[in-house]
Specification:
By secondary structure, the protein is an alpha+beta fold. The chain contains nine helices and four strands; from the N terminus they run ββαββαααααααα. It has a four-stranded antiparallel β-sheet, covered by helices on one side. A hairpin with a 2-residue loop joins strand 1 and strand 2.
Amino acid sequence: VGKIDGVEFQGGKAEDYAFVLGEGRMLPEFEAATVGLKLGESKTFPLPFPADYHGKDVAGKTAEFTITLKKLEWAHLPEVDAEFAKTLGIPDGDLAKMREDIKTNLEREVKGRAKSKTKDSVMDALIKITELEIPKALIDQDVQRLVEMTRQDMAQRGMEMKDMPFPPELFTAQAERRVRLGLILAEVVKSNNLQATPEQVKVQVEEFAQSYEDPQQVLKYYFSDRRRLAEVEALVLEENVVNYVLGKSKVTEKSVAFDELMGNNAQA
């Protein structure tokens, strides 16, 4: 619970909120104050908000926070044995089968991450070479969508954000990119007949299903809801555009380490 001059402020209260020390999701002073707390202990401390903090109502002010540590967890490596294999879905605890499954999953993840990075490169190239005027109204609409998505995401994390204002300028650049890409992709798809086909959608859903214990349940999940299928169609459409652009472009391949590709390095 955060208070300024003894009064709680909007967005300064959360229950059962979890965060990882060192990830930088909380202000440094907040993280430092939690170090040393034992389960069940509470602590009250001052926290100065930076002058450029995104919440204008608290920017440049000093709040007094009271926190209570309810749960503490940390990462540790278990023994790699049959019991461990069973926790990963290997009924008989066969370590060779476990390692093969892990290898298959990692290869799938690597393929997906490489495709994602390639897609980002293609989209950046399309934006760079395309000149067009973007209606401000479209950008404003997307800013509002991003604000609402952020508000919902933070609410799911246990933070009361219903009435907290979000400065539109925080989302303007992202919204402009989204709108610009949307207009460009629509034209590329229309001009080159790159619409997603039912067969492509089916293959994509089946690929999703491979990473789950019950693939048939995943297939049912998507094919029973038109809106879910539409999301898959959008992904396939983007992939069609990527493949089309790559076919018209000079492509340079680059070898990268696993950690760099998966974003596990310090710079990711």
